[in-house]
Amino acid sequence: NERDTDMKRLSNHLIGIDQGDVVLFADFEDGGDMWTGSGARERRRTVTFARAFRSAPAVHVSVSLWDVDTASAMRAEVVAENITRTGFEIVFRTWLDTRIARIRAGWLAIGELPHEDDWDIS
Q1: Which of 1, 6, 43, 112 could form a disulfide with 54 if both were Cys (CB 3.0 to 4.6 A apart)?
Q2: What tens digit of pLDDT does each residue of 33-53 get?
């Protein structure tokens, strides 16, 4: 079983866990393209962590609310991109004739927190 990335290893006892739940869009309210459109569509939402991690944390995202039209196949992808010490982007994509009224996504970030003995040599 091959993986795309190696396991993240944490080397100190200061482990931070941050989490949240955010509405990505509600296009049925204003006739947005996720609800009325077709073809490839994408939405991004920037998330800022409550406190900066020591390095980019592991981030997990999932759909926590899914309101869709069932007249066609439900096609979607939700991922975390551009992960940094201070935040990331939740990215939602759909395509073809799928109509999405609204989506809410939950997220969880786990990583090392800075230690008071860390040196900043930048």
Answers
A1: 112
A2: 888 888 889 999 999 999 999
